[in-house]
């Protein structure tokens, strides 16, 4: 079977797309020779089919990773590890146009957004490449009879399971800290969006990584994903996706070998606009934070709380601004909003819109399909949304904004923090004291003040409460891939205390 097909990405043209499973440094077709279809969400047409990993392929990939870890990667000089990562970052920059085009083709995100994200992808890998030779233990002075030092060692073989909303960026967030710390990895892309990860696999070979150090498989959650979560020879699983699946992964980890778990899960982030905010700026950031990436963003600012003095004015300005968002063909350079990822997600979101209407929220704009084909939904704003309505409580993962009025700081903090989630939040105000006061009280891993979605390789990101466990990005993320070893040496001999 040919493991490469020629495809035609709308904003790039013809290119060769690998479709195999990337195991032990090469593309293979998988033990059961199964395949599954990849859909273009803008047209609902099949782009191609890729090889599907089963449990057996997971076993093979884990064995390859274990062997690479023990025989080569553990012994590779840290400076060489870093050099390969920097090379990979450069190769991603070299191929950025193709990668962005394929990302847009497979995921439906507008090409302008995909192009912007590519810069974050290489920057993340480059940032962590710089860390490869800067991970140190400590010496610990206890008393003169002992010499004690700590080592920061890799965990071994790590599994990574990523979602479809940011296929390349989530891959970069996972590659960076795991390889910089010297782990070997098996990553499963989302069954919705396998294409760009396979292009990165080609670059992993070109960058010179030893075979087996980083393996990338395409496959489904219930089979390949579940096999990774419950595998007895995987030391850690890192997951990004829904809270429901995160819970299942943690259970599987607990029931198998108690592998370490980090989770980056859902959110329902409060986006708070105070009376004293600059209205134009607030509207601009609220729109961006709410609707970026078709609102398929874990940190999306979907609970929009507006103080009573500017509530009506804000709604009018917000509606006007959102109606200017260009919805349509992801290949068009000016599109801001493309299709949702799948029919399933489209149907779920339309269900939430129905719930908003039937529970009595006021539909300001949108609320229906956009166009004839593709999973497009018009940007939708509900106002006067009650605190207990479904659209105010649950993660919708689609372009449906819930706006509510608040009185004062106490009122908005009570509503903001009354959520099972705690991923992100934002405050729009000109009052610095208020910004700091409210930031201190918000139960969220990220607080943006007078901006939204500023994500950076140097800034840790992750959730309070049921939005996750552990942090990605920044120096923090390295800890999730390291384990401490304390070495205690007695100096000058001597007997034990009970002799
Ligand atoms: P999901 O969490 O089920 O899928 C994400 C990844 O997990 C995929 O790679 C999938 O194959 C894998 N997976 C699924 N079930 C698994 C299992 N039992 N064991 C191991 N791996 C498994 O997300 P899904 O179903 O695509 O979307 C449902 C909802 O999840 C969305 O509407 C949204 O609310 C949320 N979501 C949140 C994301 C985030 O960035 N926090 C990303 C994607 C979805
Ligand atoms: Mg699912």
UniProtKB/TrEMBL annotation:
GO biological process assignments: acetate biosynthetic process
| Protein name (Swiss-Prot/TrEMBL) | Aldehyde dehydrogenase
- Annotated Aldehyde dehydrogenase domain ranges read 28-487
Q: Where is the active site?
A: 264
**MF terms in GO:** aldehyde dehydrogenase (NAD+) activity
Q: Which CDD domains match?
A: ALDH_F1-2_Ald2-like
Pfam families referenced in this protein's UniProt entry, alphabetically: Aldedh
The similarity annotation says: Belongs to the aldehyde dehydrogenase family.
Task: List its EC numbers.
Answer: 1.2.1.3
Keywords attached to this Swiss-Prot or TrEMBL record, sorted alphabetically, are: Oxidoreductase
Entry-linked InterPro entries: Ald_DH/histidinol_DH, Ald_DH_C, Ald_DH_CS_GLU, Ald_DH_N, Aldehyde_DH_dom
Return the PANTHER family for the record.
ALDEHYDE DEHYDROGENASE-RELATED
UniProt key word Lipoprotein: no
- Which species is this record about? Hypocrea atroviridis (strain ATCC 20476 / IMI 206040) (Trichoderma atroviride)
What sort of enzyme, by top EC class, is this?
oxidoreductase
Taking the record's annotation, the residue ranges forming a coiled coil are none
Name the chemical reaction catalysed here: an aldehyde + NAD(+) + H2O = a carboxylate + NADH + 2 H(+)
């Amino acid at each position: 079977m040919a493991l490469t097909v020629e495809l035609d990405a709308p904003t790039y043209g013809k290119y060769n797309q690998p479709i195999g499973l990337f195991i032990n440094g090469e593309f293979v077709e998988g033990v059961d020779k199964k395949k599954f279809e990849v859909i273009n969400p803008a047209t609902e047409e099949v782009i191609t089919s890729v090889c599907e990993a089963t449990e057996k392929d997971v076993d093979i990939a884990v064995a390859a990773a274990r062997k690479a870890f023990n025989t080569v990667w553990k012994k590779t000089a840290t400076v060489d590890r870093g050099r390969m990562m920097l090379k990979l970052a450069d190769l991603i920059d070299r191929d950025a146009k193709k990668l962005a085009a394929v990302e847009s083709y497979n995921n439906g995100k507008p090409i302008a957004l995909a192009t912007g994200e590519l810069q974050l992808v290489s920057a993340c890998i480059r940032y962590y490449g710089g860390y490869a030779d800067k991970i140190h233990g400590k010496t610990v002075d206890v008393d003169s009879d002992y010499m004690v030092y700590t080592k920061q060692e890799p965990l071994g073989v790590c599994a990574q399971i990523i979602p479809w909303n940011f296929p390349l960026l989530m891959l970069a967030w996972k590659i960076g800290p795991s390889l910089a710390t010297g782990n070997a990895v098996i990553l499963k892309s989302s069954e919705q969006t396998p294409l760009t990860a396979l292009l990165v696999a080609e670059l992993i070979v070109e960058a010179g990584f030893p075979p087996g150090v980083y393996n990338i498989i395409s496959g489904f959650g219930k089979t390949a994903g579940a096999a990774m979560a419950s595998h007895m020879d995987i030391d850690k699983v890192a997951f990004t996706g829904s809270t429901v699946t995160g819970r299942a992964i943690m259970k599987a980890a607990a029931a198998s070998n108690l592998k370490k778990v980090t989770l980056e899960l859902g959110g329902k982030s409060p986006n708070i606009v105070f009376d004293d905010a600059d209205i134009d700026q607030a509207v601009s950031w609220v729109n961006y934070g709410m609707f970026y990436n078709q609102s398929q963003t874990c940190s999306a600012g979907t609970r929009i709380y507006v103080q009573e003095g500017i509530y009506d004015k804000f709604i009018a300005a917000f509606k006007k601004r959102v109606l200017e968002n260009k919805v349509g063909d992801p290949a068009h350079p000016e599109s801001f909003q493309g299709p949702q990822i799948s029919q399933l997600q489209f149907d779920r979101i339309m269900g939430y819109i129905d719930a908003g209407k039937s529970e009595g929220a006021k539909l300001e704009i949108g609320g229906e399909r956009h166009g004839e084909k593709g999973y497009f939904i018009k940007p939708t704003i509900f106002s006067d949304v009650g605190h207990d309505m479904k659209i105010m409580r649950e993660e919708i993962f689609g372009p449906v904004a819930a706006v509510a009025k608040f009185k004062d700081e106490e009122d908005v903090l009570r509503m903001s923090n009354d959520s099972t989630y705690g991923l992100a939040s934002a405050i729009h105000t000109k009052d610095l004291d208020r910004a700091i006061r409210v930031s201190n009280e918000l139960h969220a891993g990220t607080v943006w003040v007078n901006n939204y979605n500023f994500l950076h390789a140097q800034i840790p990101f992750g959730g309070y409460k049921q939005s996750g466990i552990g942090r990605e990005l920044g120096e923090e993320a390295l800890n999730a891939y390291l384990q401490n070893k304390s070495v205690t040496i007695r100096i000058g001999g001597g007997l034990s205390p009970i002799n």
